[in-house]
Design a protein that fits this description.
Low-confidence stretches: 142-146
Helix content: 40-55%
CATH superfamily of the largest domain: TAF6, C-terminal HEAT repeat domain
Order of helices and strands: HHHEEHEEHHHHHHHH
Strand content: 5-15%
Radius of gyration: 39 Å
Number of helices: 12
Oligomer: single chain
CATH topology of the largest domain: Serine Threonine Protein Phosphatase 5, Tetratricopeptide repeat
CATH architecture of the largest domain: Alpha Horseshoe
Number of domains: 2
Strand order of the largest sheet: 1-2
Length: about 325
């Protein structure tokens, strides 16, 4: 027996102009209508689940119609929830309380504001730790000039101003001179004096981030210049020897540069370039770093050894790479084996 009564079929038939529908025909059509309804509802539930929702909507039913190549139901849909009212004199009978809308009110109503066109703009959030004073950035500086105050959900939040790393004029001149000697006068006596100064002076700690950034930036772009690479490695050795410099926070920037000079595929342009001594020097630097900071970073030596072992065992690596890996493993000592 169908859940769709034959009386409902007769009412639907009358609504489309069929006034005299046989009861037997209505009873025969009812199971087919039930089957189609179940089919549409199953497809609508699939659409709901694929949309990761738990409430079935009219859009799901329309999507089910489209999947079954059935013409969708045309009409006006509203985002407001349906309001049901109890029918007078009936306890379990409800109807939808539909509000009558006057066309005059709709026509006379003001038009909504047009939405803004989608656009993407770029601006600086901060430049060298300082927030630019532009309209895109918040500019709620406190009266004391030391804090920003933002309002988020009505709760005041104090945020400290970013601190700009400032070095003295003397240190700036010193750093510029170190760069000049490293890049163009690495074979001069003055460069040797600069290395000695880097290894002994006690007031150079503010320059460490600048020196490490300079080294890590120059090495990848100058792998063909053996003298410059040698000079950069000597600068690393000097700052490692300085007892007044706390170099540990910058090891993650220095180690890739040293490893690059040790096991990179090619150093220099000509075959006569003596990159072997550079690899030997880099191997000694790697060993000294692991020996000095191995107690603070327990996995430092194991990670370096794993990198060198991978370069040594890879048959696709070149002979200079295998040489650098062997020299690095040998410099680490017998404990690596």
């Amino acid at each position: 027996m169908s859940v769709v009564p034959k009386e409902a079929i007769e009412v639907i038939a009358q609504s489309i102009g069929i006034n005299k529908l046989s009861p037997d025909v209505a009873a025969a059509v009812a199971p087919a209508v039930e089957y189609r309804l179940r089919e549409i509802m199953q497809e609508a539930i699939k659409c709901m689940r694929h949309s990761r929702r738990t409430v079935l909507t009219s859009e799901d039913v329309d999507s089910a119609f489209k999947l079954r190549n059935v013409e969708p139901i045309y009409g006006f849909t509203s985002g407001d929830p349906l309001r049901f009212k109890r029918a007078a004199g009936h306890k379990d009978l409800f109807y939808i309380d539909e509000k009558d809308v006057e066309f005059k009110d709709v026509i006379d109503a003001p038009l909504p504001k047009a939405p803004l066109e989608a656009a993407v703009t770029a601006h600086w959030l901060a430049i060298e730790g300082v927030q630019p004073a532009i309209p895109e950035n918040p500019s709620a500086e406190g009266s004391d000039g030391k804090k920003y105050e933002f309002k988020e959900d009505g709760i005041p939040i104090d945020v400290k101003l970013p601190v700009k790393h400032v070095i003295s004029r003397e240190l700036q001149l010193y750093f510029d001179k170190i760069k000049e000697l490293t890049l163009s006068k690495s074979d001069s006596i003055m460069f040797k004096q600069a290395l000695l100064s880097l290894a002994t002076d006690s007031g150079l700690h503010p320059l460490v981030p600048y020196i490490t950034h300079f080294i890590s930036d120059e090495i990848p772009h100058n792998l063909t210049k053996i003298p410059l690479l040698f000079a950069l490695m000597r600068v690393i050795r000097s700052i490692l020897q300085n007892p007044h410099i706390h170099i540990e926070p910058y090891l993650h920037q220095l180690m890739p540069s040293v490893i690059t000079c040790l096991v990179t595929k090619r150093l220099g342009i000509k075959l006569s370039d003596n990159h072997w001594d550079l690899r030997n020097f880099s191997a000694s630097l790697v060993a000294s770093i692991c020996k000095r900071f191995g107690h603070a970073y327990h996995n430092l030596q194991s990670r370096v050894a794993r990198t060198l072992l991978h370069a040594f065992l890879d048959p696709n690596k070149t002979l200079p790479q295998h040489y650098g890996a062997i020299q690095g493993l040998a410099a680490l000592g017998p404990s690596v084996v």
